[in-house]
Amino acid sequence: MSNDLSPGPCGRAWVEIDLDALAFNLADIRSKTPKSTEIMAVVKANAYGHGVEKIAERLVNEGIKAFAVTSVVEGVQLREYVNDSTILVMGFTHPDDARWLFDCNLSQLVVDGAYAKSLNNTEYNLRVHIAIDTGMHRLGMEPSNFKEIESTFNYKNLTVEGIATHLSSPDSFNKSDIEFTKSQIEEFLKVVHKLKKKGYNAGKLHTLSSYGIFNYPEFTYDYVRPGIMLYGVHSIDDKTKVQTTLRPVLSLKAIVAQVRCIKAGESVSYGRTFTAKAPMKIATASIGYADGLPRHISGNGGKGIINGQKAPIIGRVCMDMIMLDVTDIEHIKAGDTVTLIGKDGDEEIRCEEVAKAADTITNDILSGLSNRLPRVYI
Fold it and tell me: What domains, with CATH codes, occur in the chain?
């Protein structure tokens, strides 16, 4: 066998990425923000499962000069693809790994006074953004502890480039959530005002992620941080204050491995959770939960599209395979394509539908797609 040959990327299951749709979504987000506001594209978790290398390269070509990741490992990897851009690590980096922040020219989010001190003590000259905890209580310095915030500006090895907060409920239209979101912004601005009054340069301010951009445009400052909506989907609820025209970037597809007929009373897959009530035709497709397809979608509305027709997923999702009811689909055969997310003919399955069937959000579905799925860029 020749060493030059390798299996085709579409021989079992794969992900298709529409880079033009990515550019379209970026343009839509830009149209909703002031020209003075920069886009900090969130490309954590392998660009939400889309493949960080090609996503970052296209975003750079579209003029993006700032990115956000979760870990220093992601930052180091991303630096291979983007040379001159700002890369902000928004998760925890152990001080022992601070040299990677320095060597790769990464910025680090500082989450409390002790952490700022430990980074300063590494003696690397580091660029940082200060996280302000305005009520989400995940990461950040509390506004009431102003001395802790102020002290970060006085460390000789830390250069403060910006201040950020994270809104906990920007997707909600519940009255109390709206009031809470506005109170978060008020607390954030109080800190910024106090710093400026004392002569500190607060740097670039950023508060809004995806839902914030479309629901609270009045709170747009120096950066916005689009994540899930950059990839053309909503977390689960597509209701936003400002209308969007987003296009899904990702499609998920697999190959039919076998088609068979079963009799009434016969069962399908592990645990015999599905039993045929009448004779039926089923197709086995070569994708499963090891690829990131949630086990819970079967029996909860999970479907695939074959030959332009939707087919319910039946029986338990296996590690590497699923079964679909294709009784009403003609001319189906091994080698046909099953679309689990995306369009086929006039039919479409959106990631939001898959998330609903799995009782989760699209962020979970997309970031959970296995790296064993080849990414095919179109």
Answer: 19-231 (3.20.20.10), 250-377 (2.40.37.10)
